[in-house]
Amino acid sequence: MARAELRRTDLVYPEESFAIVGAVYDVYNRLGHGHAERTYQKAVGEELKKRGFKFQEQVYSPVVYLEKVVGKNYFDFLIAGKIVVELKKGDNFSKTHIEQVYRYLVSKDLRLGILVYFSPRKVNYKRIVNL
């Protein structure tokens, strides 16, 4: 089979996702484990810049109830105006963190979030889709 025939058509933003995850892996491979989330965030920001991504950091996402702001959230990255990236330290995906990223997607009417965990042994990531 030709490579083009193996390409999936059901993924949301596959090329961008691949490049973002590659950037995260490069940061982990260079820094290793044990750093604060904020350190990883700064390093990932530098790596995204190096790769030519347009992005915003610490994006404000208000919690609105009955047309009033009742809370506020900030997510780590909004890449190309369409992909949320949230960085965490830990070994396992938490339902709370997955729900957190999903809420960000819904609040900004976006389709894809990538939740990244920097663990002592490796980088884990999960794609979260808002259809």
TrEMBL record:
<dbReference type="Pfam" id="PF13366">
    <property type="entry name" value="PDDEXK_3"/>
</dbReference>
<protein>
    <recommendedName>
        <fullName>GxxExxY protein</fullName>
    </recommendedName>
</protein>
<dbReference type="InterPro" id="IPR026350">
    <property type="entry name" value="GxxExxY"/>
</dbReference>
